[in-house]
Amino acid sequence: MPNRTMAQRAQIFNSFDALKGFKELLKEKEKVVVEKRYLSEDDYEALNRLIFKIQVGMMVKIVYFDNGEYIQKEGRVAKINFDTKIIQVVKTKIRIPTIVEIYIEEYPSL
């Protein structure tokens, strides 16, 4: 047996992932893909009123539909642009038409 350094010997015993990609596959299976829910006219009006009350710096919790799943993002509003229909919460840009729920600190929720 040739002389090996301790690092070379240790590398031999490193754990290896015999099922490469299995953990990622399990995480993907945990996701439940749901259909996008459709809001009533009253829901849209209530959302619209809340959206126009949002200002930069406010704490919000927004639920939106993205890639077949609902995502909840909570944090401070960094930017809001009604021309491009984007609200940025911390570093996440959310398209306004995908929003289904909004909670604002000082306003009642939808």
What is the secondary structure topology, with strand pairs?
Elements: H1 6-12, H2 22-30, H3 41-53, E1 59-66, E2 69-81, E3 86-89, E4 92-95, E5 99-104
Describe this protein's structure.
This protein has helices at residues 6-12, 22-30, 41-53; strands spanning 59-66, 69-81, 86-89, 92-95, 99-104. It starts with 5 loop residues before the first helix and ends in a 6-residue tail after the last strand. The protein has a five-stranded antiparallel sheet, with helices on one face. The mean pLDDT is 81. The longest helix has 13 residues, at 41-53. It contains three helices and five strands, in the order H-H-H-E-E-E-E-E. The chain has 110 residues and is of the alpha+beta class. Helix content is 26%, strand content 32%.
Computed CA radius of gyration, to the nearest angstrom: 23 Å
Q: pLDDT average, as an integer?
A: 81
> What fraction of the residues are assigned to beta strands by DSSP?
25-35%
Quick one: biggest sheet? 5 strands, antiparallel
Helix and strand composition category: alpha+beta
Helix content: 25-40%
Summarize the structure.
The chain is α+β, with helices and mostly antiparallel strands and 110 residues long. Helices cover 26% and strands 32% of the residues.
